[in-house]
Amino acid sequence: xxxxxxxxxxxxxxxxxxxxxxxxxxxxxxxxxxxxxxxxxxxxxxxxxxxxxxxxxxxxxxxxxxxxxxxxxxxxxxxxxxxxxxxxxxxxxxxxxxxxxxxxxxxxxxxxxxxxxxxxxxxxxxxxxxxxxxxxxxxxxxxxxxxxxxxxxxxxxxxxxxxxx
Length: 165
Description:
Blueprint: H1 6-34, H2 38-64, H3 75-91, H4 97-126, H5 132-163
Helix pairs in contact: 1-2, 1-3, 1-4, 2-5, 3-4, 4-5
């Protein structure tokens, strides 16, 4: 068996995040429906549109490196999304649900931020110069989403959940 390289790892990780983004795209409408806070609903709907763009960028990355766009099952994202579904079930109809939805969404964002940051660094090292700006654009969007969720939690959602307790 041939020795695995950083290029192999880069491709495997691209497949991982491609799968993850497609799963997130399916989960966001459920999260939006579950949210009671209108700003949170809007944030999930906005991020659904951004996620579609992330998938399209990833398809472009695959094309630029001469590889087929395909996903590879990502157990990490499956676990994070399963926890989110559990929160929806366990906290449905309670004031704490929106706070739980934000925590779940941020777990997803942090996973994606980690993956895109790593992929960007590897792309730079591997000389994939046309790929770096695509990964960086998505990394920036994921970071902004995380910041927006933090702001929403700290300015209204957490207080509403606590007030109702």
